[in-house]
Amino acid sequence: MREPALLEIKAIDVFYGDFQALFDVSLGIGTGQVIAVIGANGAGKSTLLKTVAGLMHPRRGEILFKGIPVTGAPAFAVVKHGIALVPEGRRLFRSLTVEENLLIGGQSRRPGPWSLARIYELFPGLAERRHLPAPALSGGQQQMAAIGRALMANPQLLLCDEISLGLAPIVARDIYARLPQIVAEGLSLIIVEQDIAQALRAASQVYCLQEGRVALKGPARELTRDAISAAYFGV
Amino acid sequence: MQWFNIVLQGVLIGGLYAMFAAGLSLIFGVMRLVNIAHGDLIVLAAYVSLLVTQGMGVNPLVSLPLVVPIMALVGYGLQRGLLNRTLGDDLLPPLLVTFGLSIIIQNGLLELFTADSRRLHAGVIEIQAFELLQGVWIGVLPLVQFTIAVAVIAGLQMLFYRTELGRAFRATSDDQSMAQLTGLDTRHVFAVAMALSLAVIAIAGVFLAVRTNFDPAIGPGRLIFGFEAVIIGGLGSVWGTLAGGVILGVSQAVGAQIDPGWQLLAGHLVFLVILALRPQGLFPKVSG
Amino acid sequence: MTRVEHATQSSRIGVALIAIALIVLALAPYWGDRQTLRLLAEIYTFVALASLWNLLAGYAGLVSVGQQAFVGLGGYLLFAFAILLGMHPIAAILVAGPIGALVAVPVAALIFRLRGAYFAIGTWVVAEVFRLLASQISVLGGGSGISLPAAVVVAMAPSRQMREFETYWLALALTIVVLGAIVGLLRSRHGLALTAIRDDEMAAESVGISVWRTKFIIYIITALGTAMIGALIFLQKLRISPDTAFSVNDWTAFIIFITVIGGIGRVEGPIVGTIIFFLLRQTLADLGSLYLMMMGAVAIVVMLWAPKGLWGLVAERFGWQALPLQRHLVLEKETVGKP
Question: How far apart are CA C116 and CA C99, in angstroms?
């Protein structure tokens, strides 16, 4: 018995100009599910998230969210449907304070459990630094702020692009430790991660991309190291 | 005492120049666009005020509540319909498109209104003055204009740093695609910024119309005053543009006193000196 | 062994056509009437001014809306030298160039502190300052301007016809020199540096090109050419005033229109643009300000939907170039045993 899919990506091809980055990629995620997307640099992981978020559009194929087609919808409209992206590199707004960054995340006014108070509860370090300009924070705190900003949009699907990038392992683990609280609120997560071990711990389902194609997919617990290596490197 | 009066007059007109500058730097701050047609839009506002004043038979200052929304709408439409297409990494399109726009507006006004010099009259308030100190007189109208200019600038500052819209402006200016990811339709944000800029231009245009003679050709001169005030004051600083406007106004007033033909030159020379000695302006914003 | 070749088939045709055209034009005094000569001379000066503006904006990325500063400067230098120093007008024109370049040095030092569109407005301010200063010089007519005295005019040539011929050939010669210099510059390694800067300034800097210095030099060279052409223009007009010398419409708006419509960033662009401009002017100029409005509208439309201009569209579509400016490597086979 299959769960109704929250997000369905059906055979999308995505191009950067003439360069094809994704070939016939399909993916499905249900409510409350956590999926990890792994792969080498240039495999197309970020491209996949950007396409779901509406920053890029597939030339072929379609994307359905809660049954509604969102293929080709601009990014600001995708947010309103209930998908939020924590982008690679955090990309906090430099001219805004921490709190202003969070507030602007919420300006799409979607109803839901997330508010400033709840974000500060989840990330107490942010509450202490709420009036500091965003660039003044450490890498880990910036990552938390970026997650908080995305949560303020009250999404049903959260896309996390390389949230451990550039962070000390202990800091990254600390952030990952809070993800279950987020999922407990009913969110689904798609995590793009370079750290395979971390990805396997956090997710129930894993997709491995290799040069723009889905090379491997399956439950995290069932995938062997060899299978992942083969899919990751294409050997 | 005479010099004090002159400096005072310069300060007061500096408020008007600061308003020219505020609209210009608002747009540059939000979308890195310099609108070459800025001065011509000020003149356009003056002519809109003329139409409203003559058409409705009211005092030009009373035309403000009509001229401001009209110009704001024009700004929204202009940005959304035309200028949004010019935004991007390339420098040429916004510059050349707004230059073309400047030519169109100037000549359009020339066709509609001829090159005749106009002036709007605000009634007795124009000649009212009061004695501040012994021998020092301030005109009521210039003082009102200056006060409103300061209020506009304070308002812009507050809008930018204390409101949701201001947050949207700053975020969009920082990182346009990230702003989209938070749900902001940046085409709309840019258009609102332009509408706001034209609202400020509208106020400045009405004040200009009451204060001096105007004709379709004076637009570029106003653009230059606004630009000089921005550079003197320092890029990125809203209060800096007030200082810049005042310094420009005082320079011109002092120059005019030395020799009437030197009024404009004095302002330009002060601008060039500041550009030479302190190119970042007198009160630049420290961060990027 | 490799070498760089510039010519292509279309450029060989182009050069041949241009050579023929130049011969025909050089002989114009023998087949054209006075009006035709004047019109042609005007066309040449616009081609030259637009080509110089194109070098500045299309290649060096410096958009100036203040080149009228140097047009007027050149004009006033001509009148000053001819009237106050009794110099022969042609000598004065040739001297105006280097002096214009000298003046451009402190100007550039100042306005290069501004970037992008603010730089553009800065150039406008400089032009305004020149205009205001010119109106203060009473010995050259102050605000109302001055005419070239008869004595100076006669010094050029004894008969009016000879003067017309001389002015015509001077215009043609100067324009050829300006265009030749631009083509020569673009073919040199400085031209390669310019193309690199145009494509990506940071990358250019990282391979050792001094972006600032290159732009500075281009600005000075452009000022030199513009001042000479400016002097020539006002020799033809025989009268100068601050408003005509430093007119934004004549020396900037029209030039920008010509270059945008013809094609920014290609040498052929200003030539194509000037032809179109003069065709339009012959047919539409009676409309006065409506004509200018149309011009502005067309420039906007072209900038948004055909940013490479008319020549750019054609050149990309067919791969043409009228002048040999491309660079392709030609690999020559190594022959064994040859020294």
Answer: 27
C303 interfacial to chain B (CB closer than 8 Å): yes
Distance between CA A76 and CA C164 in Å, rounded? Answer: 66
Measured between alpha carbons, how far is residue C279 from residues B13, C147, C233, C272, C276 in Å?
46, 30, 20, 11, 5
CB C112 within 8 A of CB C119: yes
The ipTM value here is 0.91
The answer as to CATH 1.10.3470 being correct for domain C2-331 is yes
What is the rounded CA–CA span in Å between residue C187 and residue B187?
42
- List chain C domain ranges: 2-331
Percent of chain A topping pLDDT 70: 98
Task: Report pLDDT digits (tens) over A193-229.
Answer: 988 888 899 999 999 999 999 999 999 888 888 888 8
Q: What is the pLDDT of residues C93-144, one digit of tens each?
A: 999 999 999 999 999 999 999 988 889 999 999 999 999 999 999 888 888 9
Q: Checking phi first, is residue A88 left (phi over 0); if not, alpha (psi -120 to 50) or beta?
A: beta
Distance CA C19, CA B180 (A): 55
For the stretch C62-99, pLDDT in tens is: 999 999 999 999 999 999 999 999 889 999 999 999 99
CATH class of B2-277: mainly alpha
Q: Is the alpha carbon torsion for B96, B100, B101, B105 positive or negative?
A: positive
Domains and CATH numbers, chain A: 5-90+154-233 (3.40.50.300)
The upper half-sphere exposure of residue C23, i.e. CA atoms within 13 Å in the direction of its Cβ, equals 5
Query: Where do the structural domains in chain B lie, given as residue ranges?
Result: 2-277
Please enumerate in sequence order all residues whose Cβ is within 8 A of that of C105, keeping only pairs 6 or more positions apart, or say none: C220
Q: Does C285 touch chain B (CB under 8 A)?
A: no
A7: which residues sit within 8 A by CB, 6+ positions away?
A27, A28, A29, A52, A63, A64, A65, A83, A157, A188, A190
Provide, as residue numbers in chain A, all residues whose Cβ is less than 8 Å from the Cβ of B179.
Answer: 93, 104
Interface residue of A51, A88, A104, A147 to substitute, partner B, most B CBs within 10 Å: A104
